[in-house]
Amino acid sequence: MIVSTNNCKIMHATSVYINGKGIVIFGKSGSGKSNLAIKLISFGAKLISDDQTQLELKKNKIILTKPDSTPNLIEARGIGLIEVPIKNSAELFCFVKMTEIELKRLPYKKQKNCFGKKIKMIEFNPNYNNESSLFLSLKYGVKTNII
To answer: How far apart are CA 6 and CA 77, in angstroms?
Structure first.
């Protein structure tokens, strides 16, 4: 994460908008951030920003936007830059961390600190091919894990 000012940060991350919620997808270079975003957009999400996302603390809310230097396009590896539906900004709802580790069937709640706030974080392994489940959970929520 690159800190620009006290109230503004730029992350190496892709962000999307789903049902009034801002989602930041982050992970190592080549982990599939843009690919996941493209799949979520194909289900109805809108792109906020690809590759870099600006997070700004405004009136006690964390607002996601596209840095000025970032185009209103998303990069599809091996295909090129694609025009997709755009949302200019959204309040941060959660982080999605790209991972290759094996995930529990019913994971525990995780959080990530951002501007001193604890924000929900979901770990996502693209090898499971469950992007549609992720989309539905972000749009409609997840039942509390009870076992």
So the answer is: 34
Residue 89 lies in a domain: yes
Mean pLDDT of 45-64: 97
In a domain, 145, yes or no: no
- Are the C-beta atoms of residues 106 and 145 closer than 8 Å to each other? yes
* Closest C-alpha among 81, 83, 47 to residue 64: 47
In this structure, the strands spanning 80-82 and 110-114 are unpaired
Question: Residue 109 has what pLDDT?
Answer: 85
Here the CATH number for the domain that contains residue 76 is 3.40.50.300
Range of 59's domain?
2-133
Which has the higher per-residue pLDDT, 144 or 84? 84
d(CA 54, CA 49) in angstroms, rounded, equals 8
Across the strands, what pairs with 46?
A: 17
Say what the pTM is. 0.92
Neighbour-count burial of 116, counting CB atoms closer than 10 A to its CB (0-12 exposed, 13-18 middle, 19+ buried): exposed
| Total domains, the chain | 1
Q: Phi first, then psi: what are they for 128, rounded to 5°?
A: -80, -15
Residue 143 forms part of a structural domain: no
